[in-house]
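User: Hey, my collaborator sent me this sequence without any context and asked if I could get a structure. I don't really work with proteins. Can you help?
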Amino acid sequence: MENDRSRINAVIEFCDNVLENGRDRYRKNPSPLFCDGINIDTLEQMKWNFSDIGEVVISNLATQQNLFRTLTSLSILIDEPKYKNAAKDAIRYHFDHLLDKSGLIQWGGHKFIDLKTLKPVGPKEKEYVHELKNCLPYYDLMYEVNSDVTSKFIKAFWNAHVYNWDDLDVGRHGKYGLELGSVWNHELVQRPPFRESSGLSFINTGNDLIYAASSLYRLNGDKDAFKWAKHLAYQYVLARDEKTGLGAYQFTQPKKTEETDDDTNTLSKYGDRAKRQFGPEFGEVALEAKILRSGGANSIYGKNALMQLQMAKEIGEDAKDILEWTYKGLLSFATYAYIPETNSFRTMFTDGTDLTGYVLKRNGYYGKAGSEFKSHSANCGFLLSYSRAFLDTGDIELWKMSRNIAKGNGFGELGYEPGKGVDINVDTKCSDPIALFAIIDLFKATRCKEYLKLGRVIGDNIVIRSFHKGYFINDSTRMNAKFDNLEPFALVSLQAAIEGKMEDIPGFINGAGFISGSYMFPDGTVETIFDGELYNLRRGEDISTLIKGNRVQ
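Assistant: No problem. I've predicted the 3D structure and written it out in structure-token form, which is a compact way to encode the shape of the chain:
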């Protein structure tokens, strides 16, 4: 079909532009590194401005992993190796020249490379720590470049983020420079859930640790790595509510090390934030580990579920218990949290207590006194999890959830049974790349061509909304293109599905990197921002738009 060619041509044009304009331009013999993004009007590479070292060009390997999956997929699809080779060259350069002595990569939420100087930089208030949260790097490509360095990195990653192996005290911030030590050579000790801990066992950190160690087992057969991956994954299962099977965002509670009477102080050193804010009304259930809001639910039933489904599929029999944990968790969430009338999920405690409509009695981490909890949308991230789970298990209850969420997102009728009674909405305006990945999964599960037809509509919408001046941006009003955007990866995956080549390209597991830290604005003001805010700037807006809470939405 004519549009099939135009969509893949957009991806080719984008990748060619990234190779031409998105790499090192600051020395006579340039490195093969990529910047993170570009101003599509001026072709100026994306910058960060620190108060201590000034302006730097962002080159963060953690925020380029989906770009590398796109480049690799395109090489496979059109049989042109230059794209994948460019990704491999960038990784190889990091491995050869930029690794920390511990084996950690200089990347993540609070550290990256300045492309102008090829030096690691970061916000000094974050102490230059190592942090990945739901990043889920492309370990297969890293391993292909250098298996020894990749294996050492994964061990160094666990070594830096497990503060106490006996207590499985884990945290999102890891120190660089640590000696590697014995890593997996520790006894597996099962501690009770919800114990106090100096680390913060958020699942968005746990996801990356689980995925890294599982990938090492899959790539080189390291059984000890997989033993620890399963042990960590089980901590979140053990922390689920015994009656409902819901949860858990974390399996410990933060240890109180300081006192405060100020309920606007929400740092974890003052103790569990849910206990502080809701304990007087709700008692023991009021823990951060036991509250399900939009962000936590997305991490548990979106990111974690998708990652573990992929892991179970790739590993097979040895991961069947992980598949079972994930499957049961998704069914529990569908049973207790889903509101089909509004295609939304309840805000709730994991024991089933519905918090939707609850008015907060005091200030705290979860909002100001007088604000009200709302239900949150069953978005396409959840559609993807249930579609992938149906693809992997064939369970009709998972199909029913996929059907309901798809209908709630305006995709029409997927069928009273898979592939039967289908009446899709070809007029949908959806341009969400995650929705496209979900529809591809439904096609793979059923081979129903109507789903592929819907995928083509979403793909066309993606091009209309986001492809401008040879790059993919959030919409035509924006001026900065993030190379790691999912749109080109979704489009190349759609074409692979059309051509029957889906098994040949990298799978989508919805990971992504981020940068957060202090940024100095032109008037000298210094505030914490996220890199996503830079990509949301509209044409005609100055960077100062972000100052003092006047954030771009």
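In plain terms: Residues 25 and 426 are 44 Å apart (CA to CA). You can pass these tokens on to your collaborator as they are.
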